């Protein structure tokens, strides 16, 4: 998606650092792709990183820009003594490849700062995450951090969680997943919920998470209602491991969009 983007306002510094704008251009006039916006938000978030921090490293097409940037700053000697806690096997691989020293929550139960993308952000900074399948490790790491900075392009903004009609993911154990899926669907019958096993490829194989579980995606035709009530009801079902609603967890959301960067704090 190319967004015509003639007026670059708040994010000029981030765009320069992201290599999208030359310092000499007096009249910035850019055509930015959605990926450029993700990169700009990610580079802005990395400004929150300080030497000596234990960092939660998010997963996805937005978070990967932050991981790359952190690696770059370590290589340049601008960030020192960083410990990264990856939220997926994919991020683990990327972080190693860019030279970020890694550890885990067993060794570092308190994380200073986590940076991650999101699939949906509501006006209260509640999130949907996990459309890439990494919600469980993300929730563990981001639940352990002092500051959680979320990075999105403006397409992720919604009025109500689940209101986009797109998936609210739930990680379930493989054992009798159809039973769990039907329990989940029944919980939200009044919201017109449809529960579908996530599959991939032409053969429609079940998608298996890093934790060897399945994902049931919930699609809502009407409002989910009270999010805390919905969260408790989902977590109360045996067979459910975790869901992708991240309620009251984000401390900052950085949104890159047509009018530049917006930073929302809790
Ligand atoms: O499971 C995936 C994660 O929750 C991602 O952070 C989320 O899906 C957003 O990903 P992206 O930045 O690729 O849109």
UniProtKB/TrEMBL annotation:
An example of a Gene Ontology BP annotation on this entry?
pentose-phosphate shunt, non-oxidative branch
Name the catalysed reactions.
Answer: aldehydo-D-ribose 5-phosphate = D-ribulose 5-phosphate
Cite the Pfam families for this sequence: Rib_5-P_isom_A (PF06026)
Which keywords fit this entry according to its UniProt record? Isomerase
Q: Which GO terms describe its molecular function?
A: ribose-5-phosphate isomerase activity
E.C. no: 5.3.1.6
Keyword Isomerase annotated: yes
Task: Kindly report, in one word, the top-level EC class recorded for this enzyme.
Answer: isomerase
Entry annotated with the keyword RNA-binding: no
**SUPFAM superfamilies hit by this protein:** D-ribose-5-phosphate isomerase (RpiA), lid domain, NagB/RpiA/CoA transferase-like
Going by the entry's taxonomy, the superkingdom of the source organism is recorded as Eukaryota
Q: What pathway does the annotation place this protein in?
A: Carbohydrate degradation; pentose phosphate pathway; D-ribose 5-phosphate from D-ribulose 5-phosphate (non-oxidative stage): step 1/1
| Family that this chain belongs to | Belongs to the ribose 5-phosphate isomerase family.
What protein name is recorded for this chain?
A: ribose-5-phosphate isomerase
Protein source organism: Lupinus albus
